[in-house]
Specification:
Distance between the termini: 52 Å
Shape: globular
Strand content: 25-35%
Helix content: 25-40%
Oligomer: single chain
Strand order of the largest sheet: 4-5-10-6-7
């Protein structure tokens, strides 16, 4: 790899200043950046490590909500009792990333900031209705996760802005994530689908569906969600929701599979994730 300047700030303010002034790239877990640098697809003049900023690490509870620091390792998200119990789709998405070795290095902030439409944690964060906290030298702001992405590899982050944490509000009654892939491990998702539902007295009071790898950015299947709210979860209703989710996505054909296959599998997997989320919401 090419030579570069390396900085290890200990505060967010210093990291943000260096990130903006040095035309640098941020180092979180390094599972994307280091590989890119070795392959010469990434040639930063400077690298700013976030690994010595303690407030970016950890999973904490705040009443009914959970806060996840951006530098929290994917493996910790996968195994967290709070995440597993209350945001199961996110834990399941985390468990699908690479190998255990990779998950022990990679961070949830890096997985999201990389802005891949196929990121495995993004669908779980979408259905958790997560808020993304962002810091810079000018202060802090927060954006909903579904407003963070602007295109493949692109976000609303301005120069010098750093994702600091993900705030997950009161969880749904049940959630589930399915990754469509070829191999059992270490594959990029052909499609990622997550669903979260609240179920009260046999009626769906709220529903959220997150789709990955079927549009230029991760998306919510809002038309399908609207069909579900206020109704009993009959097989016919879930069929309609799957069809609506498929109609609302815009997949592409690539080396992995065709757009037609992706759209059809969105239909199938939306129904399946809803069935599993509903089962969990019912205590099954």
């Amino acid at each position: 790899m090419k030579s570069f300047a390396f900085f290890e700030p200990t505060t967010l303010a210093e990291a943000s200043r260096l990130f903006a002034e040095e035309h640098a790239q941020l180092l979180a877990g390094g599972t994307d950046l280091v590989i890119g640098m070795k392959a010469y697809t990434e040639t930063p003049q400077s690298v700013v490590s976030l690994q010595k900023i303690p407030e970016l690490v950890g999973i904490t509870t705040d009443g009914d909500s959970v806060n996840i620091g951006a530098m929290t390792k994917i493996r910790e998200v996968e195994l967290s009792a709070e995440v597993l119990q209350h945001y199961t789709a996110l834990a399941e998405g985390a468990s699908e990333i690479g190998s255990i070795q990779i998950r022990n290095l990679a961070t949830i902030g890096g997985n999201i900031a990389h802005a891949s439409p196929a990121a495995d944690t993004v669908a779980g964060l979408l259905v958790a209705d997560a808020q993304v906290d962002i810091a810079s030298a000018d202060g802090e702001r927060s954006v909903p996760i579904d407003e963070l992405f602007t295109g493949p590899g692109q976000t609303v982050l301005a120069p010098g802005e750093i994702i600091t944490r993900f705030r997950l509000p009161k969880p749904a009654s049940g959630s589930h994530y399915i990754k469509h892939k070829i191999r059992e491990v270490m594959d990029l998702a052909f499609i990622g689908v997550a669903a979260a539902v609240n179920l009260e007295n046999g009626t769906i009071t709220d529903a959220r569906i997150g789709l990955a790898a079927v549009a230029p950015t991760p998306i919510r299947a809002t038309e399908a969600e609207n069909l579900l709210r206020g109704n009993e979860p009959t097989p016919a209703l879930l069929e309609q929701a799957g069809e609506a989710a498929a109609a609302g996505c815009s997949p592409i054909s690539d080396l992995r599979c065709s757009a037609e296959h992706r759209r059809e599998m969105v239909n199938v997997l939306t129904k399946r994730t809803l069935e599993n989320a509903l089962a969990r919401a019912s205590g099954e």
